[in-house]
Amino acid sequence: MQSFTILEGVVAPLLRSNVDTDAIIPKQFLKSIKRTGFGVNLFDAWRYLDAGFPGQDSSTRQPNPDFVLNQPRYQQASILLAGENFGCGSSREHAVWALDGFGFRCVIAPSFADIFNNNSFKSGLLPLVLDKSIIEKLAADCEANEGYQLKVDLEQQQVIAPDGETYSFEVDQFRKHCLLNGLDDIGLTLQNADAIKQYEIKRKEAAPWLFNGVT
Amino acid sequence: MSAKTLYDKVWDAHQVHQQDDGTVLLYIDRHLVHEVTSPQAFEGLQISGRKPWRIDSMLAVADHNVPTTSREAGIEDPVSKLQVDTLDANCDAHGIVEFKMNDHRQGIVHVIGPEQGATLPGMTVVCGDSHTSTHGAFGALAFGIGTSEVEHVMATQCLLQKKSRNMLVSVDGEVGPGVTAKDIVLAIIGEIGTAGGNGSAIEFGGDAIRALSMEGRMTVCNMAIEAGARAGMIAVDQTTIDYVKARPFSPSNEQWDAAEAAWRDLVSDEGAKFDKIVRINAADIMPQVSWGTSPEMVAGISGVVPDPSSETNETKAEGMRRALQYMDLSAGTAISDIKIDKVFIGSCTNSRIEDLRAAAAVIKDRKVAGNVKLALVVPGSGLVKKQAEEEGLDSIFSNAGFEWREPGCSMCLAMNADKLESGERCASTSNRNFEGRQGQGGRTHLVSPAMAAAAAIAGHFVDVRSF
Ligand code: SF4
Hints:
Shape of chain A: globular
Radius of gyration of chain A: 20 Å
Strand order of the largest sheet of chain B: 5-4-3-6-7
Oligomer: heterodimer
Order of helices and strands of chain A: EHHEHEHEHEEEHHH
Number of strands of chain A: 7
Radius of gyration of chain B: 21 Å
Bound molecules: iron/sulfur cluster
Structural class of chain B: alpha/beta
Number of strands of chain B: 19
Strand order of the largest sheet of chain A: 4-3-2-1-5-6-7
Number of helices of chain B: 15
Largest sheet of chain A: 7 strands, mixed
Structural class of chain A: alpha/beta
Distance between the termini of chain A: 35 Å
């Protein structure tokens, strides 16, 4: 996993609430068996006027000029300001891969859906929670200033705005550690392989039916 | 020892290790696998040279991409075909049990797990699919995970988790006639909202939940994720034990007796502490129809489409306006005046035998309305289909003008050929009415199987209680 330490980048606002994973990456693109290539179809139904399907040449498509991310000023955005309950719906990690593929490394929202939140940490995207009122202020500043950037310092747990304001955020310490160091948590878990085996032995004695297996 | 909730009990029994910060290494008993969220996980294993930890904990099936029409010719769409072929190849390579597309046991992953006895009380069950919450109906701790976590479970049989909060939703009293599990859960989500269960494991309790069959309980837990919950659970009772008995992967003989005794304890103790309790009066619940693009946007059948201008929360009002525009509905329209183009009876929410019986009972000796272009019935599994055919339900559906299909996810998410065209309006027994869920530009109204059947006959929504 790529590590996340300090991010300074262009901000894009998309404040509607309950943005679901079907909207982030529509199902027809989930047929891919790869982890990459989802960025061009991020928010597909909102971003293009024509219907999207896998394998299309995206240069022939009709972008929706009204959709915020189609504005030239947001093309290089790496921080998304979002609304409540961002990422609700399905468990598809493709939603995170699509955000990442577009160039986002951090989503700032008042709240995230559970599975999306987990998936983000696993793929090196920081889901960062700030108060709704702060996000609204940042979004207003962002809209008023082309090229508006924020600095996200994960180590210090701070978002720093161009006007010098800093906003602290909470983050799970273990996840922070993994993200800062780009740690693969399968490797970490396997350091406990003996404990897992011992658990299995004990559990098998107490509840052998859990180990019958499917055959 | 202090009183524990059902969730506490299952959680505690699966802790392998706890870090100082409270992160727990949680042991996973059952890992269900489907074609959409697993290829990148298998690839990850291969790249890192790892092997699955416990192959016999896994059960795989292709459900999202499979055609529901004749399967003899295979899958036409090459991209869908590659995904299903990839699952087959990965399972074959590792020796993982998979019900292949033409196996008579194939079906939606959340239907076949319980049907086979692969889901048992007290288990931890995961799948790369948010509706894994379904399996909580058995007093299991079941939740959806992303692809990185799928790989993590494959490689280690564990997940790194923080404990969720305990929430109780108690549906007290008895529901009226014609009110089903689907109506109960839609009413709950309408009440607590799609983020109402965030950060929590919801235990569904109360007399109205106790009175449900296992099929009904699965419908309720299935949609726990739509309330934002990490998991939904229902305590074990005689109904659970009767359902589990004699399933292919259930324990037998002396193992059964020990298992049954252990399962009887899978209830929240008297006095167990819940962080949040919501009580709903069952008698107040009427058949539900969703009118918007989020499962919390529901109304009773005798209600009307609500008016955003009477909503005081501006974010909510904005969401309502957007939804009404997408759904092409105006405030004040009677729900029963909404005409439909298509009907879909299926999905992991409502494709079990009881659901098909309920729908068939409504349409028997009637015909689908002329304005309904397509009415589909997609059984949840090959075994559900067989059972329904033995009971003659297929001919009731066919005679009424429904199409009787092969099992799979189908128009629940339209990854295969079954979908809504832009602008089409559908009465659907599935679980999500998000924009474009059933096809780009398609408009979904979530209802129970009986309500979908009645709408098919009437051509618009109608109160099944007086139909
Ligand atoms: S039926 Fe629908 S909700 Fe259920 S697993 Fe399939 S796609 Fe997901």
